[in-house]
Amino acid sequence: MEINELEINNHRILKAKYAKDELINILKEAEALAKKVSPFDPSGTERDFITRNIKNIGGLLAEKVVIDIAQQYANEHKCLLEIKESNWKEAESSLYQIDHIFSIDSKIKTIETRSSFSYKTKCPERVVTGAFSIIGPYVSEHKIKEIEKDFYAFVFYCMNPQKLPDILCKNNFIEVYFAGGASISMFSETTTLKQKGAEYKIIKPITAGLDATAFFQKLFS
After folding, report:
1. pLDDT by residue (tens digit) across 131-166?
2. CB 17, CB 2: distance < 8 Å
3. Could you give the 3-state DSSP secondary structure of residue 157?
4. Which of 42, 46, 111, 118 could bridge 123 with an S-S bond, Cβ 3.0-4.6 Å?
5. Rounded CA gap, 98 and 183, in Å?
6. Which domain holds residue 72?
7. Strand duo 151-157 + 107-117: pairing
8. What is the widest separation between alpha-carbon atoms in the chain?
9. Residue 136 C-beta-side C-alpha neighbours within 13 Å
């Protein structure tokens, strides 16, 4: 994994570059999951095997990048990091939710990461300056109350998801961005977004939250 820091409007994000041979396990797991998961997305739209496989790769890689960056930070700052739990699920047809439970120097920290693909706007610039949000706790008719996490983060890809296999095949690598996030206390006076029967607390633009550096500093404090 190769990590580079980018700065957009004084907001630092991280671009992680993975070689294809670093993703062998993810590609195998994604394919296995595609054979098991429902062919219908959360909205009820049917998807073919290739589409399901691509969605799985996106979710699993977003999960991996959070762990990898956190582990690198822990090593550099001589902190003890233990991954207590890590899983991802498809929240909507193009949005993923990854839940992590970390033990950092014996203190439990919970993180919810949303990830998505951006290909209809200037990426990565517009992703962090207005096109996307940091999504916090939400409620819906099926979920009256949510267990709040300590932190919320956002990961994204600058590509059409349908082109992901071609990009991996042609370039033998893939790039994924960690945009930063927010602590739960930062959502106390934020706006809400109503969408598909759910109401989300959001911070928009992403630059109004913690950048990548500040996010991990606060997470490990």
Report:
1. 999 999 887 776 666 789 999 999 999 999 999 989
2. yes
3. strand
4. 118
5. 16
6. 2-219
7. parallel
8. 47
9. 22
